[in-house]
Amino acid sequence: MKAVILAGGFGTRLRPLSCTRPKLLFPIGNKPLLDWKLERLAKNGIKEVILAVNYMADAFIQRYGDSAYGMKLFYSKEEKPLRTGGPIKNAEEIIGREEIFLVLNGDILTNLDYSKLVKEHREKDATATIALHQVEDPSRYGVAELTEKNRIVQFVEKPTREKAPSNLINAGVYVLEPKIFDYIPSGQPVSIEREVFPKLADKGKLYGYPFEGLWTDIGKLEDYLKANKLLLDIEIKKSQLGKGVRLESGVKIKDPTVVGEKVVIGEKSEIGPHVVVGERVILGREVHAQNSVIFSGTVISDFTTVKGAVIGEDVTIGRKVKIGEGCMIGDHAVIRDNVTLTRDVTVCPSKEVAESVLTPKCLM
Ligand code: GDD
Ligand code: MG
To answer: Is 55 exposed, middle or buried (0-12, 13-18, 19+ CB in 10 A)?
Structure first.
């Protein structure tokens, strides 16, 4: 069976970090999100994967080439973004009409058992079966109303909270019959959620598969941090130190935390819980980090605190700096000594910051 991964989209809400890498290549627990997905597909017996790409297509081709985890990779490129349905139609020739196939939103971290979803699909007279996950606030997602037999009678994309028919949301994983191609016009942007699923629901051909377990998308910064946190809590559990890590005396690593290869952590620093430190990062003495992700090659000097933030690659952060909740620091940025960035401050790639910023702001 083949799988299509929707890997386009601009990742607007993850700027400035998405200016230099596509959303699917953001690291989760030090491994790109897409790797987690490919690994899982391979374990579920998938042999061929089609990556539907547009924005930063070359970043994918460079990293994976034509195979990954023993599967063959194909790239289906779009001249212009075709949204979530258009790319499926665009890849019709590569997918073929012989058998059912999987479609995955690329920006999702989940431990869903794909084979169970496929089994569920085969047992019903469905053109599409959607994996469904229960959430507190469904308004940011596609929402399904189910019958007892798991048929979807209503599918609404991003309803207001009051109008949402349930708390069961589209988890962004589908099994589709080749018949789906007849529902998608070619050569134009199509939203499968808005233009195709409601039609299938009306015809009684749309089914749902509710599942529990790990699930989150990484649409915005807090989701991205949550994805890392869930992975650490559910899959990794105990802290992990990569090869060649050097911890000076009095360092405390609080579970669960992942430290990449060749990282150096200075005296009395306290790292964790829920911190991911990329490869070759250098942390000075008495650095405190919690609930944060630090990308590879970054240097953080003595007495600095990082809390609830994401720090890009090869960033340089001075002494006695405070970086607070919701801050995102672009690659190669420089934050000078004694600077405080209180909350929701984003710093563009290569920007130098010498003064404190005490209100949410984007520093260009
Ligand atoms: N190839 C391609 N081309 N991929 C695209 C394009 C495009 O033009 N636009 C978006 N994508 C990819 C994104 O990279 C992402 O992996 C996926 O399609 C979904 O797009 P998002 O922009 O992330 O949509 P969303 O998060 O607002 O909503 C979708 O996901 C929710 C679950 O996270 C919908 O499918 C909702 O119904 C769903 O609940
Ligand atoms: Mg999304």
So the answer is: middle
